[in-house]
Amino acid sequence: MPQNGFSVGRDYSLDIITPNGPLSFGLIISFSSKQDSTEKKIKGLDGITRPVRFFDGWSGNIEVTRQDDSLDAYFAQLEEDYYNGLTEQGCTITETITEVDGSVSQYRYLGVLLKYDSAGNKSGDDTISQSLSFMASRRKKVS
What we know:
By secondary structure, the protein is mainly β. Helix content is 10%, strand content 55%. The two termini are 18 Å apart. The mean pLDDT is 92.
């Protein structure tokens, strides 16, 4: 629910769908994403610089607090599949946002490759934070 006219983190939810079904895991602490692009300056003989951009997908990070072995099991299976010569299939991430005006926006990241950046630091009397990063070929507005 937006606060005082501003979007806040709890306005967002994520659904990750793998080729084997939904990937659910611990409590999501943070999510970040950014559009990747390559820009180039082209300077003509007329002396005018003209910029051009090539869209290059999306990338981002997801931080979670471990509540079960979902991520460990998912990435263990991916590794096993790799060594068995199986092709890794892409995932999708659907980002759902409750906007300040109460409407709902959804964006879907396509062709997602997940990377297990950290399985977490284990220590007494502390929660275990795990982190993922992702690359996606595109992000499309769903609604």
